[in-house]
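[Discussion] Sanity-checking designs against the backbone

I'm trying to build intuition for which residues belong where. Below is a structure token string of 61 positions. I'd appreciate it if someone posts a full sequence so I can compare it with mine line by line.
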């Protein structure tokens, strides 16, 4: 799944669109949401941000 597909899926789920209910299983939804989290984390790392206890922190601090 590409980053764009993952982000589109997340936007669809958050908007309440019926595609979220059409996924074949909760396992598939969990995998796609995990993919989304990885994409976000990768983008944050590129921008020099790290995750700590649920908060974003800049490496500059």
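Best answer:
Here's mine. Compare freely.
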């Amino acid at each position: 799944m590409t980053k764009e597909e993952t982000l589109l899926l997340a936007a669809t789920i958050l908007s309440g669109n019926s595609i979220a209910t059409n996924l074949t299983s909760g396992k598939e939804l969990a995998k796609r949401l995990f993919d989304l989290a990885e994409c976000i984390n990768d983008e944050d790392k590129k921008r020099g941000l790290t995750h700590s206890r649920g908060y974003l922190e800049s490496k500059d601090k």
